[in-house]
Amino acid sequence: MAHAYTPGLKVTNRMSYSVIRMLPIKGDVMVKVGDNVNANQIVAATYMPGDVYPLNMANLLAVPPKDVASLMLRKEGEKVEKGEAIAETAGLFGKFKKKYNSPYSGTIETVSDVTGQVILRGPDIPVEVKAYVTGAVTAVNPEIGCTIETDVAFIQGIFGIGGETCGPIKFAVENCDEAISANNISEDMKGCVVIGGARISVESIEAARKVGVVALIGGGMDDQDLRDFLGYDLGVAITGSEKKGITVIVTEGFGDITMASRTFDLLKKFEGKEASVNGATQIRAGVMRPEIIIPLEAGDCEEETEQVGGYLEIGLPLRIIRDPYFGMLGTVSALPSEPHVLGSGSKARVLEVKLSSGESVIVPRANVELIEA
Amino acid sequence: MTIDLENINVILATDCGSTTTKAILIEKVDGTYRQTYRGEAPTTVEKPFANVTIGVTNAVTEVGELAGRQLTNEDGTIKTPASDSDGCDMYISTSSAGGGLQMMVAGVIAEMTAASAKRAALGAGAIVMDVISSNDKRRPHEQIQRIRELRPDMILISGGTDGGTTEKVVQLAELIAPAKPQPRFGSEYEMPIIFAGNKMAADEVEATLQEDWIDLAVVENLRPTLEQENLGPARDKIHDVFLEHVMAHAPGYDMLMDWTDADIMPTPGAVGNILQTIAKKENINVVGVDIGGATTDVFSVFDETFNRTVSANLGMSYSISNVCAEATMPNVLRWVHFDMDERQLRNRVKNKMIRPTTIPQSLESLIFEQAVAREALRLAYKQHKEFATTLKGVQQQRTVGDTFSQQTGGSTIVDNMKLNLLVASGGVLSHAPSMNQTAMMLIDAFEPEGCTNLAKDSIFMMPHLGVLSAVHPEAAAQVFERDCLIYLGTCIAAKGLGKEGKPCFSWTLSGDVARSGTCNFGDIELIEMGPEETATIVCEPARGFDLGAGNGKKVTHEVCGGTVGLVIDGRGRPLGLPEERQQCQQTIARWVENMALYREMEEAVVSA
Question: Is-above-0.90 flag for pTM?
Fold first, then answer.
């Protein structure tokens, strides 16, 4: 293998972005092809079948299962209200009848004469799907959903917490190497996507949540801060469903890391503009990284930057992503083809990196990621 | 399809993993089957390729280039049959791509029929997403909610012995019908449900599950009586459904199924196959482990009973953070013989989790990863021991003599004293820079007792050989014996606890290596003994220690060497480490030195 593909996170000032918005089950799509939608607009809605409550009526009425159907006051398909009597025993000589009142509102779905079980289905649950990104509807899949497309500036983070949200971009720091503290958070950030520089602390997240910041973005964070914020130690990187009232994204990794200047500068260019963000991260089959999407307007960033990720070549800028040089930036200065014995004793294919300090170091090819100049 | 085994000279086998597709070539050399070349390429199940055969063709092309044999046609398909310079006579494959086979199982009682159903699913190579039972302490609506959230490839329902409860079994079906679980692949796909419970309940279950989105199959009860498990029919059906539904819906698998000369098997199912074949052939008890990035699979065959467990969140990259959370950081760090900054380590662990393909560059980093591996393996083996039990619910006949040794049904069948062979595979074990490190990780985590052979799967060939053993057992056995396992050596370890520095057992070796000595409690020693060397060891344990013949009783074992040698382990079982950090570091440092784990690189790390 002459070349090794080296991944990199996508950071681009212009790209065509397409997102499919789908209902979990069939329902109504409320837009048509050609419509312009904004991020908060509901594009499809439906009702999910309600929760299911099995009631062991044979036990509750102390009768054989086969008798249950005849004792039901409400039959299959009928609606019932909470507290309403739904079954009654025959009693003794018409007396001492025992009634059973429904503990939930809903519909009687089935009555089993084998188990004596009654399945009660709760009221339908409304489900709404928002556009998520401001753009144009380019396709509609009837009863299922739609596709929204637009030109955007796009930034992929490395790890996030919390789901989709949107708001105007606001900066909490001046420089990309500035850590964000609780003091950097102010009341006027309510509803905003707030950008920090380097490390995000748990205090800054709490302060941001308190004032109603919808998303907080920084270069890195400490594992301890993540644990304090979540209230548990995250074992597997599958996130996005946390209900913490704020979405948090780190662009570089864990620890004291400065946000890549290119990412910081790109966000700076769009200060005040609306951004859609999603912290959902899944690092297994079907990798999903958190994202920051800024829909472009006419005249914004006409030139598209080159994509990151590709084959290693001399002179390309990169970041080292594993100790002992974790987080350091440099350029590829040599690509020896023969495997090299590392300090750990393992043999691996390596490259020589010229660090920004001028020093040259040897690093396994698996431990670098390409970044844009 | 009938294959003339006499005329098979070149066999091509692939294993389509989640990230890598591995291809091996097996050729008949001087009348014996040998594994000759190996190649790999990224798996292409995910977008933008979304076709597994692209990765297969790439991996096979690499093998072909190395072997100087054209193995693919111009359109990427596999070239058959073999001639002198190109093609192969047989092509077979296993798969765990796209998350493998994911199942939900249900049974009436968690410890009985539900446990049997879980065993059937795991044995077939599945990942069990959840086990629903009448006594799992969840309320029915919570169970239904859970079923709704899961997206399994198929569901296995068991419950009731034949002629036993009908009502409870139908109740399980009544939970599944309204929940309408969505399958993983596409909304058009009918959810396969296998019923392997009380045969008297089959009609009622069928009536309850008569829905257009369900494809129900009824097979023999997997627990016909409490005393008997009958997992075969359920396992076979799972395999059929895997091929008919899951594989047929995974991207490119319809093509791959056309290419292969035998049914595609789930990777862990194939590994289980080969280990069972070997255990039977050699009449031994075997434990195999495969530690990956996300999961750790443990397989065991004790007295011909096969068990497999998957520890879903114990792994070395995607799940490394979970290992540290479950084991706790102090437990991980007890295996490290120098100080490390805990805050920095925690960040490192998380960085490995979010960038799972990185490798340790420094020795310090390697030592820490191997410490995590010990804990991942230890926890996975613990889970395996808890799962691999005798059948629960069996009535016990007791005598007065049993009064003081009350064994309930459901005791583990995993007995380290009876273990003959411990096989390692998976990145952190297979790619350790020194085989001494692999052997020591196995010994520390599994704590073998008595006399145990240690081996590693040379290039993760067991899945390929597992599927091969189903179609060409002779070829599979020959390759397993000659090329698959690298024997690391033998571990002689005493069970029991004593006082540090006091004699644990004395030993005398005769044969290719002749030596004798006394192993003190708390010590571990490495005797050089090459792969071709064998010897007889006579051990005399001190009182309170057992080496296989009983407390303090003399024992004789035949031992063979390996790339590591003979390990004399007097550290006792269960293996304990000093609580005090400084003392613990000194103990580990002594073991590291005695086992020559990092000798060559040690000085560099200390000076750094």
Answer: no
Interface size A-B, in CB pairs within 8 Å, comes to 170
Judged against a pLDDT cut of 90, whether residue B393 lies above it is answered with: no
Contacts of residue B385, Cβ cutoff 8 Å, sequence gap at least 6: B412, B414
For strand B20-29 and strand B32-42, is the pairing parallel, antiparallel, or unpaired? Answer: antiparallel
Q: Where are the domains of chain B?
A: 5-97, 100-259, 287-306+411-582+590-607
Closest residue by Cα to residue B37 from B1, B71, B64, B2: B64
At residue A8, the pLDDT reads 65
Ordered by where they begin, the domains of chain A are: 5-16+150-295 (3.50.30), 52-121 (2.40.50), 312-370 (2.30.30.30)
- A45 Cβ contact list (under 8 Å, min separation 6): A23, A27, A28, A30, A126, A127, A128, A129
Q: Which residue has the higher pLDDT, B76 or B570?
A: B570
The C-alpha of B506 sits at a distance from chain A's nearest C-alpha, in angstroms, of 35
CB contact under 8 A, A367 and B361: yes
Inter-chain CB proximity B354 and A115 less than 8 Å: no
Predicted local confidence at residue B128, as pLDDT: 85
**Chain B interface mutation, best of A120, A344, A371, highest count of B Cβ atoms under 10 Å:** A344
Facing residue for A236 by CB, picked from B319, B604, B605: B319
Which of A224, A235, A363 lies at the smallest CB-CB distance from B325?
A: A235
Residue with tokens 């006051």: A73
* The token pair that represents B307 in the structure block: 């068990």
In the three-class reduction of DSSP (H, G, I as helix; E, B as strand; rest coil), residue B347 is classed as helix
Chain A residues close to B349, C-beta within 8 Å: 223
Q: What is the pLDDT of residues B534-590, one digit of tens each?
A: 999 999 999 999 999 999 999 999 999 999 999 999 999 999 999 999 999 999 999
Angle at A176 between CA A173 and CA A179, to 5 degrees: 60
Phi, psi (5° rounding) for residue B65? Answer: -65, -45
Helices (H) then strands (E): counts for chain A:
5, 30
Amino acid at A74: R
The residue to which tokens 């929940």 are assigned: B179
Helices (H), B101-166: 113-123, 140-149
To the nearest whole angstrom, how far is the Cα of B562 from the nearest Cα of chain A?
21
CA distance B299 to B309: 7
Residue B470, number of CB atoms within 10 A of its CB: 17
Q: Among residues B190, B184, B168, B183, which one has the least CA distance to residue B106? A: B168
pLDDT of residue B394: 64
Write down the ipTM of this complex: 0.86
Domain B100-259 has CATH 3.40.50.300: no
- Rounded to the nearest integer, the mean pLDDT of chain B is 88
Residue type, B376: A
**Domain B5-97: what homologous superfamily?**
ATPase, nucleotide binding domain (3.30.420.40)
Say if residue B295's pLDDT is above 90. Answer: no
What is the average pLDDT value for chain A, to the nearest integer? 89
Task: Tell whether omega for the bond before B81 is within 30 degrees of 0, i.e. cis.
Answer: yes
- Which residues of A are less than 8 Å from B343 in CB distance? 222-224
